[in-house]
């Protein structure tokens, strides 16, 4: 009875909000939880659930898994990007169940905030947990990087029956394999993306998590990911079950790699650019496999997948493209810069920095971004900064060195002006905002340039 | 002219964008024709304080500070002590600042013996002091930053505070002081990149270092329009 009531109030509130023209908020989930705290445990009973968590790549990974399930002809639902706390997750289960609490879909793809995972894991039932990686993120909100790792680990301990997919190249993520009883599938990249790259300066985990000795690396991929080994206690990377064995081609819009899935080698196109998306792709391959999807369908999904909302979204303005790439932390921002560096056409760059709770109140992290000498490239024509902390970003860019360019500032979060500027460049534009900035600017861009309504 | 910077533990205490400070020092000196050479003084590497005109140490995670205390005791602590008392310019931030004091007592009672180079101690509490903040040095320089610490620092009588709080917690949230100042050592809770947007404070450090080495220092003014606007933006949003 309570399940019924809980579902009913959630639907009612959602319906009213929609009539009022308001987008999804946390309210429907909140009222549902008020009526029945553990409503998720009922709703996750009759559906195959995969939970995607970790610092970077959650949304893109969910989209790739979605593509995999679609390819395999399965029915599924997925919680909306940004609605990844218990309220949003609960609401998405309710909206995809019958009024008596029976799920209408075969699969649920759940993007779960790593710190909300603790609470979610107390109620939900899951078949697979995919952990993308653990990086430093929004420190002032969550504390330090090992706290994030512990949050994930403790949550997994609440789900002993789930198969857990771990990034073997992330010494933090992989360390949890020692403490959890679950069945584990590992994934990773066996080679560096760029053989000539210098050793990365940024490191979230330079010292062994078990004995605090410095890791030795046989190669680096990005951030602290790579072939780590502790000579003191013997903790080291293990060759993963799902691996990228070599990288053949890195293009702005796609990569070509040789994958090795449990010994089955294949040349695979990954239809999204960015080295970090190679990790997302291989992680999803492991996740889909754990869900029982065939390897053939997995390959097809990786080849057909395109884009992910918010992470990299494209709008069209005349002959030019306005691209929006969300950044949340130093690793993601650095990867975005190295991605932009691979572009050969002229473009304008717009960086937008906010400091609301969801962005991280402390903007110091922008100084850990590796700009990869991008401003040495002459096709980066104009540089604009905007957002609530536009001048912090202006200084960051100034001290990076921008050559003869002028750093132009769009003050007062004036996103209408931003669209005016973006559409009058006569060249492609890449907008790189933090989370709440993206959330505010996107409706403004979509209203003027088209694009589906965010809330749908 | 050449100024040599020693960056202590850049491999470990590299959180919160600490390297922004080295970038700011370097570029502001280069812009005035001063050559800068920076050495990374990492774990296990010994150094001689006499080789440096500016020393810098950043903040870090609790997990990594344990590793570091052992390394400090292998001789780096003596060199740091010497530098501080010789009047070498030394900027220490957050965790690095705390380590110059006598000890850190965690809120659950664990005692960490620190270098004791300066007369102050720190005691942890569970509740962190977090937020944008601002203080003013005795020269009247206004500094804005972001603090995030659970340690409460109490200064002894042998040292001065770096500044008086305009807004925020500072050393302990009680006595209105922020940071420590002793000769040319500057300790502060403003973690991460304090120097880039506090241009006057950066220049104070540079002029002290040049003065130490070359007798006098007269720094040409630079175009700090963006820096001033960044300060103003934070002042307007969070301070005044
Ligand atoms: Zn070890």
What is the percent of helical residues of chain A? 25-40%
Distance between the termini of chain B: 40 Å
What is the alpha-carbon Rg of chain B in Å? 17 Å
- Determine the oligomeric state from the structure: heterodimer
Mean pLDDT across the residues of chain B is 93
Description:
- The complex is a heterodimer of chains A (456) and B (240).
- Chain A has 456 residues and is of the alpha/beta class.
- Helices cover 35% and strands 20% of the residues of chain A.
- Chain A has a 9-stranded mixed beta sheet, sandwiched between helices. A 6-stranded mixed beta sheet of chain A has the order 12-13-17-14-15-16, with helices on both faces. A two-stranded antiparallel ribbon of chain A has the order 7-8.
- In chain A, helix 6 runs parallel beside helix 8.
- The two termini of chain A are 30 Å apart.
- Chain B has 240 residues and is α/β, with parallel strands linked by helices.
- Chain B has helices at residues 19-30, 62-86, 95-99, 199-214, 225-239; strands spanning 2-8, 35-41, 54-57, 89-93, 103-105, 111-113, 120-136, 142-155, 163-167, 177-178, 180-182, 185-188.
- Chain B has a 6-stranded mixed beta sheet with strand order 2-1-3-4-12-11.
- Chain B is globular.
- The model of chain B has no long low-confidence stretch (mean pLDDT 93).
- Classes of the chains: A alpha/beta (456), B alpha/beta (240).
- The A-B interface holds A 136, 139-140, 144-146, 201-203, 206-207, 212, 214, 361-368, 388-392, 394-396, 398-399, 401, 407, 409 and B 11-12, 14-20, 23-24, 27, 43, 61-64, 66-67, 130-132, 146, 148, 191-193, 196-197, 226-227, 229-230, 232-233, 237.
């Amino acid at each position: 009875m309570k399940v019924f009531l809980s579902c009913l109030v959630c639907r009612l509130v959602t319906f009213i909000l929609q009539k009022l023209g308001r987008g999804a908020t946390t309210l429907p989930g909140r009222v549902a939880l008020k009526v029945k705290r553990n409503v998720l445990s009922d709703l996750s009973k009759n559906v195959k659930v995969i939970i995607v968590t970790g610092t970077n790549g959650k949304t893109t990974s969910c989209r790739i898994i979605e593509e995999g399930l679609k390819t395999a002809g399965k029915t599924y639902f997925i919680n909306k990007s940004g609605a990844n706390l218990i309220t949003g997750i609960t609401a998405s289960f309710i909206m995809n169940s019958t009024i008596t609490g029976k799920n209408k879909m075969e699969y649920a793809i759940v993007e779960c905030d790593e710190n909300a995972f603790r609470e979610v894991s107390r109620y939900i039932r899951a078949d697979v947990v995919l952990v993308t990686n653990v990086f430093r993120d929004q420190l002032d909100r969550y504390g330090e990087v090992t706290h994030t790792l512990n949050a994930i680990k403790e949550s997994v301990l609440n789900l002993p029956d789930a198969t857990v997919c771990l990034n073997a190249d992330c010494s933090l993520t992989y360390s949890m394999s020692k403490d959890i009883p679950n069945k584990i599938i590992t994934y990773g990249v066996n080679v560096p993306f760029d053989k000539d790259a210098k050793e990365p300066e940024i490191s979230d985990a330079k010292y062994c998590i078990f004995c605090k000795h410095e890791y030795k690396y046989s190669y680096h991929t990005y951030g602290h990911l790579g072939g780590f080994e502790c000579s003191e206690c013997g903790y080291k990377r293990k060759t993963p079950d799902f691996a990228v064995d070599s990288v053949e081609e890195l293009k702005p819009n796609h990569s070509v790699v040789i994958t090795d899935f449990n010994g089955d080698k294949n040349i695979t196109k990954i239809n999204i650019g960015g080295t970090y998306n190679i990790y997302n792709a291989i992680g999803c391959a492991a996740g889909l496999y754990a869900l029982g999807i065939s390897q053939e369908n997995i390959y097809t999904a990786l080849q057909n997948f395109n884009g992910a909302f918010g992470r990299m979204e494209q709008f069209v303005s005349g002959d030019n493209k306005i691209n929006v790439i969300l950044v949340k932390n130093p690793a993601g921002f650095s990867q975005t810069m190295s991605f932009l560096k691979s572009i050969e056409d002229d473009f304008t760059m717009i960086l937008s920095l906010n400091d609301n709770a969801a962005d991280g109140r402390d903007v110091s992290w922008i100084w850990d971004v590796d700009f990869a000498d991008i401003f040495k490239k002459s096709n980066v024509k104009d540089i604009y900064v905007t957002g609530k902390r536009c001048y912090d970003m202006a200084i960051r860019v100034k001290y990076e060195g921008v050559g003869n360019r002028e750093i132009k500032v769009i003050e007062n979060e004036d996103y209408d002006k931003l669209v005016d500027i973006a559409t009058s460049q006569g060249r492609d534009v890449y907008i790189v905002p933090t989370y709440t900035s993206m959330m505010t600017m996107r409706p403004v861009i979509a209203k003027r340039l088209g694009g589906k309504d965010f809330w749908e | 002219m050449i100024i040599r910077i020693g960056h202590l533990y850049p491999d470990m205490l590299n959180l919160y964008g600490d390297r922004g400070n080295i970038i700011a020092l370097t570029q502001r000196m280069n812009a005035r024709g001063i050559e800068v050479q920076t050495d990374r003084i990492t774990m296990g590497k010994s150094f001689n304080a006499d080789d440096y005109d500016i020393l810098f140490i950043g903040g870090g995670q609790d997990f990594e500070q344990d590793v570091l205390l052992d390394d400090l005791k292998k001789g780096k602590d003596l060199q740091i002590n010497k530098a501080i008392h010789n009047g070498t310019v030394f900027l220490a931030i957050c965790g690095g600042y705390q380590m110059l004091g006598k000890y850190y007592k965690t809120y659950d009672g664990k005692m960490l013996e620190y270098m004791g180079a300066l007369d102050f101690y720190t005691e942890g509490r569970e509740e962190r002091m977090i937020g944008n903040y601002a203080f003013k040095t005795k020269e009247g320089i206004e500094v804005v930053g972001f603090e995030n610490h659970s340690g409460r620092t109490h200064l002894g009588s042998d040292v001065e505070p770096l500044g008086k709080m305009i807004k925020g917690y500072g050393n302990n949230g009680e006595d209105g002081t922020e940071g420590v100042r002793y000769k040319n050592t500057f300790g502060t809770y403003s973690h991460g990149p304090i120097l880039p947007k506090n241009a006057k404070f950066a220049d104070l450090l540079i002029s002290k270092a040049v003065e130490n080495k070359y007798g006098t220092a007269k720094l040409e003014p630079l175009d700090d329009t963006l820096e001033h606007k960044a300060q103003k933006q934070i002042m307007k949003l969070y301070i005044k």
